[in-house]
Amino acid sequence: MAVTIKQVASAAGVSVSTVSRAFTAPDQVQPQTLQRVREAAAALGYSPNPAARSLRGGRTGSLGLIIPDIANPFFPPIFKAMQARARRLGYTVLAADTDEREYDELETIAAVSKQVDGLILWASTLPEERLRELGAEMPTVLVNRHVEGMAELRISLAQGIAQAAEHLKAYGHTRCVFVNAEHGEHGRGKSIREVFEAHDLSLTELGPYDPRFETGLHAATLVAAGEATAVLAHNDLVALGVLHQFAKLGVGVPDRVSVIGIDDTLLAATSTPSLTTIRISADEVATAAADLLIDTIAGRGEGRVAGIGSRLIPRASTGPAPG
Q1: What is the mean pLDDT of the chain?
Q2: For 60, which DSSP code?
């Protein structure tokens, strides 16, 4: 494992922020303290991060985007829009995925951080302490993960979920299923349960599973065996799996079951039937995340929280409840 800034701080008997300043702004550190930090770093084999090099004249001109799954159709438009935004501001974007695994995320961050001036971490699975260490080592923006004091882009599904609940209630649905494909305590299941309960909609939760097409296939079989008349899926990819399996089982959509996704990817509009979904704007997300990271690199964005909203896009996969 790579030596962390926290280990250097402990060995030198100083704070993490002092170690960070020793490499990024050495003129702000007392000479004796600076010497102690450098000796500790040399003894441990610690390599200062690229952000430190950039402040000494070796800026990489690149932003790192770490996402859970590049195969998810939600992410390519975000990468493309972020690249366009970054290019206008004098940067390029280097993207990598973690395959939804914590160990892979650590390895990916270690590799990518050597080549960029700052990182955007999407729905990171790392422990809070490790994220704080990373934030002290280099400019970092979290998306859909809150750590006090770190820059964050928060995507709120509140409005979109409320509209989805109102939409289903207006169609006469009362028994609904949420296909949960998010592990851990940072998921969206709690807010969905609260909103549906507030609209007097019963909600059965399946999962948690992995956020993949195959999850939808499995969940659809379970739903078809029950009495629910509406499904809200974790994302469009899962919802498309639900639609596919319903078609295979002869379950009519929306005649027998209505289906809603989350994200509004290109596939949502082109599926059969077209998928009702909660839209998260790729352009808005990309612009806000890139701007926040560049501000953080410049020392203006630390601890700031930016927000993006959502809204329901009704299409052909939802309709009146049967009977």
Answers
A1: 91
A2: -
